[in-house]
Amino acid sequence: MNISKLISPLFLAAAFTFGFNPGLVRADETCSSPYLARIDGQEEFVYVWTLGVEGLGDGMDKLVTVDVRPGSPTYGKVVSSSSVEGRNEAHHAGFTDDRRQLWLAGLETSRVFIFDVYTDPAKPKYVKTIDDFEKTTGGAIGPHGAYPLPGRMLIPCLSNAKDKSGRTALVEFNNDGTYIATHWLPTKDDARGAANANLADGYGYDARVLPRKNALLTSSFTGLNNYMRDLGQLMSDAEAMKHFGSTMVMWDFHTRQPKKIFQVPGAPLEIRWAWDPKHNYAFTATALTSKLWCVYADDKGEWQAKDVAPIGDMKGGVLPVDISLSADDKTLFVGSFLDGKCRVFDVSDPMKPKQIYEKQIGKQVNMVSESWDGKRLYFTSSLLANWDKKGADNEQFLRAYSWDGKELKPQFDLDFTALKLGRAHHMLFGSSKLGPNRVIASAK
Known about the structure:
The protein has helices at about 10-20, 135, 225, 230-235; strands spanning about 25, 40, 45-50, 60-65, 80-85, 90-95, 100-105, 110-115, 125-130, 140-145, 145-150, 150-160, 170-175, 180-185, 205-210, 215-220, 245-250, 255-265, 270-275, 280-285, 290-295, 305-310, 320-325, 330-335, 340-345, 355-360, 370, 375-380, 395-405, 410-415, 425-430. By secondary structure, it is mostly beta strands. The radius of gyration is 20 Å and the shape is globular. The chain starts with 8 loop residues before the first helix and ends in a 14-residue tail after the last strand.
């Protein structure tokens, strides 16, 4: 009898994906999908999805590749840059599960640009564009990024074509770019069977999976009517400020059905699941209320959401926008746009985070990406083209730091304005050395 046929593929996926030893020589961003092929050893390149700026260089969005190989003569320097058509409000990006392609999303035009990063990781090559996103998906627009599942990509959106509000959907494509399905976020009028239907607002932002618990968790932001406005004008518009997400949704991952809606006021953004196989929780940060939240399974196995810590002093202006959880689930890095700081929390007890350090990264900061071994962190500066600061405060950079558990120390600093590249937004790690394919479960 072939015993392997009796073992659940899902069990194998969970055991392999979540049961590995963080001490192994296997690297990646700690926020990556559990289905993503891993890098062997240290990251070699950082890919930066960059917003074009009118009058700066060619003015177009571009994929910028930076060499981060220790000892390389081009360490800390741009080694390639590939522009795409126009300015699309470049936002987030994601690899396919086999790490052969990188999908780059545009929030304004709803285009998705696909690059080959496997043939020559130092020089990604443009492959094609998904330019009929709105029509194909049935009206979902504002693709936030691309999250790898087995053989397909999950794209959480921010808006819809009808009224450009925050009502939106999750969309799936095959790795070859063929459309599969659209899953609309639950609303009060159509909660799709989810508990706490009275809380449903239909808003979306991030989407992350915990396969061993059959859990898909989504967060919420705002629609195109808001995210394409000037930030100062938006914040002075009391009515517009009412149209931000205040929910997270737990889904049945296999059926793609929403199961429970949580009230999480203040636009919960990035989601980071814990990695330890015994840790059934995820963190998020709310941009408008400056709080850390934990979504966790209680003693009865029921999912709950709880405000667990403040992030800075809201009166001084914080706007936490990105978080990165260490591979051992002990340390959480929080990047805050308005004050330009990174705050570091000890989250060994996820219900009682304690701030242990903070560092001024710049006059504004957006994304933070941490290496798997916890020794290197990278930061970028741009949030949204019309939300970035003005004048001298509009620093645009990629900055690298080392982390020894106590202090962030600068390693290199790239000025994207001086280099005529644009506004540095999302980062992903690249390498010529990938690990073997892993056993994975079907995403269906």
